[in-house]
User: What shape does this take?
Amino acid sequence: MNCINTIGSYSFLAEPFHCDFMGKLLMSHLGNHLLNAADFHAHEGGFGMSVLQPMHKSWVLSRLAIEMTEIPLAYDKFKVETWIESVVRYFSNRNYAIVGSNGKVYGYGRSIWAMIDTDTRQPVDIFSVTGNQKKAYITTEKLCPMEQVSRVKILNTAQRLKTICTAYSDVDMNGHINSVKYIEHILNLWNIDFYAHHTIKRLDIAYVAEAHGGDLLHFDVACRDELVYMVRVVKQIENHEQETEVCRCEIHFVKY
Amino acid sequence: MNCINTIGSYSFLAEPFHCDFMGKLLMSHLGNHLLNAADFHAHEGGFGMSVLQPMHKSWVLSRLAIEMTEIPLAYDKFKVETWIESVVRYFSNRNYAIVGSNGKVYGYGRSIWAMIDTDTRQPVDIFSVTGNQKKAYITTEKLCPMEQVSRVKILNTAQRLKTICTAYSDVDMNGHINSVKYIEHILNLWNIDFYAHHTIKRLDIAYVAEAHGGDLLHFDVACRDELVYMVRVVKQIENHEQETEVCRCEIHFVKY
Assistant: This one.
């Protein structure tokens, strides 16, 4: 019998040093847990990075959205459930549920992954690589009760609020700026006082282009209302004038 | 029968987004794993933070040293073994071994923890709080074959190389700059090119005072030789002139 877990489930702990000053798990670390769950589940299905790498193919995270009703607190144990909702040629739609030990749902996530050829950096038809193995993993049995991932439109009122020079710890195994680190840098645009009275309800992030260690990152921020912000992250290679958008993010806060 | 695990052992994975561009686990994340192992083991022994907090007591990390012969690579599974070597009034000496799945030892760690009264911020006699429970956990059965934690003397040739303003993600549950984040910021003083040819052999860090979110951190660096560096981290509260040393670190690199 061939047993297929269309819904992967992986246990995590809200580690104390991954929590903010309110004792809440930082969204960047929660994002990391979702990406890990995706990676583990793909590996189980036989279409993980270890299989793709020798074929010169790779999964690339295109979009990620997380919507929370409650944020795990320090030492909370939770599971990330993950499943593939659909695959449309170059893109795989993978969802997540963040579930507490007592069955309480903290929140949900959605993501879009593209498969690329690592030599040409061009998108690849997913089924042409994974074949039926991946098809068997698509499930509509579980629902993800949150809106689709936003395209994140940046208002033209956006203002440049910060510039950082990316460093050693920002760079991932592929030599690109780490997807999780973008979330961390973006959320650092608000100060401690703001987070004392606001918590994140929803975060949508779209990864547009890759940046490299040593690149400058500019953060342009627009405010739709006092609780909804759009952030455009723009890279600039040192000593070059040209700026290129690398990602955009929309954040919905709620007040305490 | 009362069974005491004088040597705690906890499993970790070198997660892909915790690895650098060479696919090696970042030392800041390894440090986090050691601190987690210490926390879990103290909790098992009945002298963890959950017991201390209601008594208005807390463990405070005073020093940490890590010495590696090999650094775990992405997806490596490893265990952190931890045990208490000795307790001297205000200070507990806790050691670590980082052990691969096949028994290979990646490296060792040493740490010194102080117990403080969270109301007065003064040190507390450890046994007066934990009693014999903690004594039963002291073991000399396992050796930690690395030199004692260094006091880290800063050479007076130190030069200010960088200043950062601490942000939301730098602050831990106690409202202080996160011990792990100091390591991350310090290791960011060297660029990608440097890490392409150098790896960390040993890191000693001494935590001297606490800094808070919004504080400026200055990084003063001295070089003993081309492979040994000392870093003094100095805080400055915004719009104040006074500078206070918050931690100091000594790093030994090896060349590839």
